[in-house]
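tool_call: predict_structure(chain=1)
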Amino acid sequence: MKRALLTGATAAMLALPGAASAKVVELGSTIPAGQVSCPTNCQALSRVTGYQSRAGVLRDPFLIPRAGKIVAFTVRLGAPTAEQMRFFQADLQLGQPSVQMSVLRRDPRRRTRNEHRLLAQSDPFPVKDHLGSAPTFVLDKPIQVSRSSIVALTTPTWAPALSVGLKRDHLWRASRPKGRCDNVSQRAQQVRLMSVKIFGCTYFTARLYYTVTYIPDNRPTQS
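tool_result:
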């Protein structure tokens, strides 16, 4: 899959065949801005798939409200120091930082609501050259999404795309097993299509720093 990179809000200007009048929605853009960690209080996501479940008064900001297409996603990245980079890459042996976008379906049954199926996923994008900025990654082929899907962020290695020290009404859910939430270097990322993982960990006072460029399908004209 080809990879294209835009910066800032350029994704809102994407030109797609037959989509000249389509409405472009940036999921996650209404979450109040905060300070991304690194280099101060440097923390990072590692080997995990996660999504923001609540951000203040906003609930489920990455829940797809209507069938449509995802065309890009943006990640705001901290700027680790050289010493912090060595810690993540060499000491923890996580390698080069990278991100990818994932589409999940949460089990609707109450008893198994922590189970999430991976429906689609972008290629991984290396982000070492974009630390300290907010790169936008355009998908070569838009990903079709259905209503009630959840768009998550996956870090196959690691990425400083986290804001910490927020109020308790900011929380995100992770693909780590319950009881092992403190082990943040375990391999818990969800990367096999149609696989099911239990999202057993919820982290409070933190935000995952990403947004998703989504174009909902046009509603049929009523006669």
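agent: Confidence is low (pLDDT under 50) at residues 7-13. Proceeding to next step.
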